[in-house]
Design goal:
Shape of chain A: globular
Largest sheet of chain A: 4 strands, mixed
Distance between the termini of chain A: 39 Å
Strand order of the largest sheet of chain A: 2-1-6-5
Oligomer: homodimer
């Protein structure tokens, strides 16, 4: 299955076509947002390269590309927080994907132990932890 | 109000501190996800530079940085789809923000006319429009 091809035929195809033609950035990455398939909350925002996106589509489990480690990364490989993908969406100009996932293991997604990586809210000029 | 400073003191402060110390990328940008404050659905994923983030915090209306136009951009300036920010969250390593917004104007967020930019779902090897 070839999921990625360049360049997209034209703007109409990019925005309304049936072909997945992700527009990876100069580093070969696309932003990926994962929400909890049950609750809808945003769990994390990470990056996928073409291989990570292909593996995510083929295996049904979320794969990312770690910018800090410069390596492909299967979510949950060490933490057990595997993410089973229930739905994958792409945005209008195909430079971002949204996956709805069921987190396995302890049900969390963040290396800090929080359920979601977005556990801090900006309030009155400071960040407050509110998981 | 200085909302941004570099570098963050240390990993503990980055992940659990009260200071907003966003880690902009090499292009000076941070990913920003906007969800509908009412329904929770993801409306769009865009980018903010330091100025856009500051303006978002100061005005309570979403500002972004357009990578294609290389310019600061107040959401809704021409479309009327101003986004009133109800909550702003930052993730564990402060390289992404999540804003919950009330879209003004026609209530949409996408230049295609769709409510959300993520109107296409990957199904059986193709993208299907399902707003």
């Amino acid at each position: 299955m070839t999921t990625t091809s360049f360049p997209p035929p034209d703007k109409a195809a990019l925005e309304h076509g049936a072909a997945l033609t992700p527009r990876f950035d100069a580093n070969g990455l696309i932003a990926a947002v994962a929400t909890h398939a049950g609750t809808g909350e945003i769990l994390m925002l990470a990056w996928m390269n073409a291989e990570a996106l292909d593996l995510t589509l083929k295996t049904g489990e979320a794969h990312y590309f770690s910018r800090s480690r410069n390596a492909l990364w299967k979510k949950g490989e060490t933490s057990g927080q595997v993410q089973i993908v229930r739905e994958l969406r792409v945005d209008c100009d195909q430079d971002a994907v949204w996956i709805k996932v069921d987190p396995q293991g302890d049900g969390g997604a963040c290396h800090t132990g929080a359920r979601s990586c977005f556990y801090r809210v900006w309030e009155d000029g400071r960040l407050v932890e509110r998981p």
